[in-house]
Amino acid sequence: MNRPKRFLALLVALGVVALAGVGGVAAQTVVGVTATEIKIGNTNPYSGPASAYGTIGKALGAYFKKVNDEGGINGRKINYISLDDQYSPPKTVEMIRRLVEQDQVAFVFQPLGTPPNSAIHKYMNEKKVPQLFVATGATKWNDPKNFPWTMGFQPNYQTEGRIYAAYILKNVPDAKVGILYQNDDYGKDYLKGFEDGLGEAAKKVVVLKQSYEVTDPTIDSQIVNLKNSGANVFFNITIPKFAVQAIKKANDIGWKPLHFLNNVSSSLGTVLKPAGLEASKGLITALYMKEITDPQWKNDKGFLDWVTWMKKYYPEGALDDQSNAYAYNVAILVTHVLKQCGNDLSRENIMKQAASVKNLELPLLLPGIKVNTGPADFAPVEQEQLAKFNGEIWATFGEIIDASKK
Amino acid sequence: MENGGAAGKIVGLVVVLVVACALPFAMSGFRVFQFTQVYIYAIALLGLNILTGYNGQISLGHGAFYAIGAYTTAIMIDKWNIGYGWTIPTAGILCLVVGFLFGRPALRLEGLYLALATFSLALAVPQILKYFEHWTGGSQGIVLSKPKAPWRLPLSEDQWLYFLTLVILIVLFVLAQNLLRSRTGRAIVAIRDNHIAAEAMGINSALYKSVVFGVSAAYTGVAGALSGIAIAFVAPDSFNIFLSITLLTGIVIGGLATISGAIFGALFIQFVPNWAQEISKAAPWAIFGIFLIVFMYVMPHGIAGFLRLAWIRMTRSAVTGRKAAGEARS
């Protein structure tokens, strides 16, 4: 071997080592993925005070069953492991740690509830495991700078509150607003968005705020107080059980304000019908999903597909429970993201693809509302549209309002 | 025979201790975390057992003291930047005072009435926590950071917390053992067995009862503080009424009025719900209920009582066996 050749050999060897080194730096963490399987973890409250939401976790599993029956994603079947956390943050931490450290899931998808997600927020980001499309409307999930491994899904409550405020400022000149809210993070998020949206006017316009505890039996006295305050606008921040009471009571005592009902309770089947369709006439809400109990969608393709799927894969699930429609939408979104990942199912790429969804329509979102994410935008659904109840259906009106464009 | 039993007990304790120290090096971080939880529950259960098992006062509200302990720690760390080591005794002392003060008026209540009064405490605390939002973060709770091992010990955060909890557990268990074996301990038990007779013997029943309530709350408060540090998050949802009921379940299953029962009870409430979930996703609590009934049927004196009985039978049969053999030889 003469000198130049030896030199060349040395160079090549160095090059190989350097390349290997670079490869090592760029190495991606692939966990929970084999040639035939993708492991996904989830926590849901199957027991305890919030167990009504447990249907979401079950519906997600039912959707993945459909995906698997159709051959999986790029030939990989989804192995969905969903554990009960009872809506108790310590239990969520334990269950999520089990999923990440013992079951070795690729990522965690749709853990439910603000307190449970808060409890694992730091952990997921320290471990660099995606905490994708969390099932809560709190505002803090859209924070890619500080928490690059956590992403929300639905429009947050503050955004919705701001939409109502903007409408009132523009259309109700002599507004005197009475507010009823649930005394927890959910109620206060709405309240904050609403008051922020009113800005300076808030002090003048809001005449009375009343709160209730989720454990209270009734809110009748609050409604009476609100009526007596002389309010002509009512912002109703209540969960379905109390929304029914509020609509009924206001009607019974002859209070007819311009009534804004939060999206949380916009279901025809579980709120408006029990409260009385006549009493519900004139309610205004902001929607991003098709209300599955609203007759205007009964021939809609997205709705019919959903019903077919429900009957085949989740027959024990209720056809009038909006949660099952919610789960269907978000399961389709995650399937889309995984398809987009191709064969690179590293945690880095899953997060990257989740942050590069462009103009995706989901079958049960309102027509025109699209999912968009980006490296600095971890809020997939940010559009909503106002709708007025006309006694039969939620009739949408006005433009689609995009919270990200503000 | 007596000496043999004592020696056996010491050997047993040493073996348990060695295993406990080796565990965190043999298991994954997740398992270490689970066992830390077991020790935390064990401290809380011991506290409740001093009150309910030894003194006969039923409390359905110890989740409240657990919450107060956890929030004391969280607020001190989050708002005042105090080292977590200081927050644990503070939580204990605060709960001692609160427990003592609650114990005074509760003296007038006996049995089921006391259970109801404490039940209301457990119901009220999560809502009160929401009310002082400025301190407690309302229903959003407070997020903490997990402490790292000090003095450059080569331990992970989980392992460090495990050993910290283990040491506190041992100290508190030894203290409880000494307390209950003393004159004071006999007075506590005498009040449970017959408080009129106890008073006739000159025991100040009212004072003892409130002090026991305070000590019991202090134990549970320390457990709550450790839980706040281990979970690194506190929120009202963590301390719902179910926690109090779980604690009561733990001492009954573990063995009322036994010290080792706290450990067995803690193992039960930590692991059995998870097994129940493995068996049936649809009805985990029905399975848990079956477990409960089976345990209560097979071991009416709890796990600790069962083991003691088994031990006595074993040694007795060994002795009679030896005697029989001796007789045969002669």
Kindly provide the radius of gyration of chain A, computed on alpha-carbon positions and rounded to a whole number of angstroms. 24 Å
The helix/strand series of chain A, from N terminus to C terminus, equals: HEHEHEHEHEHHEHEHEHHEHHHEEE
Instruction: Give the name of the CATH architecture of the largest domain in chain A.
Output: 3-Layer(aba) Sandwich
Unreliable segments of 5+ consecutive residues of chain B = none
Number of domains of chain A: 2
* Ends apart, CA distance between termini of chain B: 22 Å
- Mean pLDDT across the residues of chain A is 88
Unreliable stretches of chain A (pLDDT < 50, length at least 5) are: 16-26
**How many β-strand stretches of chain B?**
2
Which structural category fits the helices and strands of chain B? mainly alpha
What can be said about the biggest beta sheet of chain B?
Answer: 2 strands, antiparallel
DSSP helical segment count of chain A: 14
**Backbone shape of chain B:** globular
Strand order of the largest sheet of chain B: 1-2
Bin the strand percentage of chain B: under 5%
Q: Helix count of chain B, per DSSP? A: 14
Helix and strand content put the structural class of chain A at alpha/beta
Our Rg estimate of chain B from Cα atoms comes to 21 Å
Q: What's the CATH C level of the largest domain in chain A? A: Alpha Beta
Description:
- Chain A is of the alpha/beta class and 406 residues long.
- Chain A is 43% helix and 15% strand.
- Chain A is built from 14 helices and 12 strands.
- In chain A, strands 2-1-3-4 form a 4-stranded parallel β-sheet, with helices on both faces.
- In chain A, helix 9 links the parallel strand 7 and strand 8.
- The longest helix of chain A has 24 residues.
- Chain A is globular.
- About 3% of the residues of chain A have low confidence.
- Chain B has 330 residues and is mostly helical.
- Helix content of chain B is 80%, strand content 1%.
- Chain B contains 14 helices and 2 strands, in the order ααααααβααααβαααα.
- Chain B has a two-stranded antiparallel ribbon.
- In chain B, helix 2 runs parallel beside helix 7, helix 4 runs antiparallel to helix 10 and helix 12 packs across helix 13.
- Chain B is globular, with a radius of gyration of 21 Å.
